[in-house]
Design goal:
11 strands, elongated, 4-stranded antiparallel β-sheet, 41% helix, Immunoglobulin-like, alpha+beta, 2 domains, 292 residues
Length: 292
């Protein structure tokens, strides 16, 4: 009986040891060093900085968040503006949303001035008070529109025809029109919508990374070294949206890494595999030229 119990105990210990060895065989390790090289200086270790090991690249996590927070549709934004239908049509047909742009006068044609009420009023104001010599003046009055509609329409059409010829002969008279459009300029509201969306994305992305895709995190020591044990698999070593700095260099990392069973994988983070935080993204989101 005693021998049987001893044999059973030995078998149980063997099974436990075998299971532990098997579990350890499925693990690996990450051994990381991080250094930044400022311009014309020696490399400096990234000291006491938190790195995150993710199961998905931070770039793709950002795209996931962006997909769930779609940008405002440009045409819908224009349709909701409290301006004339003619101006809405003009905005939808042009890349420019900033009506105070110094280049606006070069984008406008005489027909634009005549057809869009806001442009016509801005042109009249910019050239009022004797600023522009020889500019046609309307002979009709608002009262004629009700009391003498035929005369009003005739004089209105004559004025527009004369004004078109004048603009064609004096294109310089359109200079300064943009200064009269600041009160209805949609660019500031558009830029605010884009900025608010970008802030939401910047706040939501690191939160999602740490709650859904975080495998491990660790801090580097004073030598810029850090290590962590991980199950075998593919990961990304990331700083999320945080920047590590040294001198004039401000860097972030989002580097893929493969962890193998029973092996320690070495990873050196440097300027070469980093993202320059000072480099502006290749996007037109902040500008009125974006049609998304």
């Amino acid at each position: 009986m005693r021998n049987a119990l001893l044999a059973a105990g030995f078998l149980l210990c063997s099974l436990i040891a075998t299971g532990t060895a098997s579990a350890q065989a499925g693990n690996g390790a990450l051994d990381l060093t991080a250094r930044i090289t400022p311009t014309a200086a020696r490399p400096e270790p990234v000291r006491q900085f938190t790195f995150y090991v993710l199961t998905k690249s931070y770039e793709d996590i950002t795209k996931e968040v962006e997909a769930n927070d779609a940008p405002t549709d440009r045409d819908k934004f224009i349709s909701d503006l409290k301006v004339s239908d003619q101006l809405k049509d003009w905005l939808k047909g042009h890349d420019e949303l900033d009506l105070t742009s110094p280049n606006l006068d070069k984008m406008l044609t005489p027909d634009d001035i005549l057809k869009v009420p806001e442009f016509l009023l801005a042109y009249q104001r910019a050239n009022s008070g004797g600023v522009t010599y020889g500019i046609p003046k309307p002979k009709y009055t608002d009262a004629d529109k009700t009391d003498h509609p035929d005369r009003y329409q005739k004089q209105h059409d004559e004025y527009l025809a004369a004004l078109k010829k004048f603009i064609q002969s004096h294109p310089e008279s359109m200079s300064g029109v943009e200064l009269e459009l600041s009160g209805i300029n949609p660019q500031s509201k558009w830029a605010l919508l884009r900025t608010e969306r970008q802030k939401r994305i910047q706040q939501a992305t690191p939160a999602l990374a740490q709650t859904k895709y975080l495998a491990a995190q660790f801090d580097t020591d004073l030598d810029g070294h850090g290590a962590v044990n991980l199950p075998a698999g593919n990961y990304w070593v990331s700083t999320l949206n945080l920047e590590a700095g040294a001198g004039d260099a401000q860097l972030r990392w989002d580097v893929p890494i493969a962890i193998q069973n029973g092996r320690s994988t070495q990873l050196a983070l440097t300027n070469l595999n980093a993202i320059d935080a000072h480099k502006k993204p290749d996007t037109d989101e902040a500008h009125g030229s974006s049609k998304n």
